[in-house]
Amino acid sequence: MEELLIVTTGGTIDKVYFDDKSDYQVGEPQIGRILEELGVAFRFRVIPILRKDSLHITDADRELVRATVAAQPTRHVLVTHGTDSMVQTAQALAPVAGKTIVLTGALNPARFRGSDAEFNIGTAVGAVQSLGAGVYIAMNGRIWDPARVRKNVAANRFEADAG
């Protein structure tokens, strides 16, 4: 892998808790800091294009993500995304040819102790380097086909879509 392109869209992975508001808001992308702290042995470039909870991502936002990824010469792409509409965005990226695109996120903010963010990012980095061209989701220690996965909101995890 020559370089990893990282496109950030917001989501829980980047959320910050504001005490004075008793509220969470999407903050700065966390993935660059995480990769630097881990001392990764590859070059990466972060393009932050959205800072939204994935419940608020629109079809126009998905088109922006698709166009951004398609316009870059980089073959290996990681997209950080909120988990609630990650599957829809992954499906919108399906027309992008000749790239390995992996979407990941977190069920708890990256800044929180015990967050799944670092584990999911590590899984996604391994996947983007070893899989062939296509679009994938890396969550809960597994690599998922976006056409065959769903988020089980009640259980707060991704699972095979029986439908």
Automatic annotation (TrEMBL):
<feature type="domain" description="L-asparaginase N-terminal">
    <location>
        <begin position="4"/>
        <end position="155"/>
    </location>
</feature>
<dbReference type="GO" id="GO:0004067">
    <property type="term" value="F:asparaginase activity"/>
</dbReference>
<dbReference type="InterPro" id="IPR027474">
    <property type="entry name" value="L-asparaginase_N"/>
</dbReference>
<dbReference type="InterPro" id="IPR006034">
    <property type="entry name" value="Asparaginase/glutaminase-like"/>
</dbReference>
<dbReference type="InterPro" id="IPR036152">
    <property type="entry name" value="Asp/glu_Ase-like_sf"/>
</dbReference>
<protein>
    <submittedName>
        <fullName>Asparaginase domain-containing protein</fullName>
        <ecNumber>3.5.1.1</ecNumber>
    </submittedName>
</protein>
<keyword id="KW-0378">Hydrolase</keyword>
<dbReference type="Pfam" id="PF00710">
    <property type="entry name" value="Asparaginase"/>
</dbReference>
<dbReference type="InterPro" id="IPR037152">
    <property type="entry name" value="L-asparaginase_N_sf"/>
</dbReference>
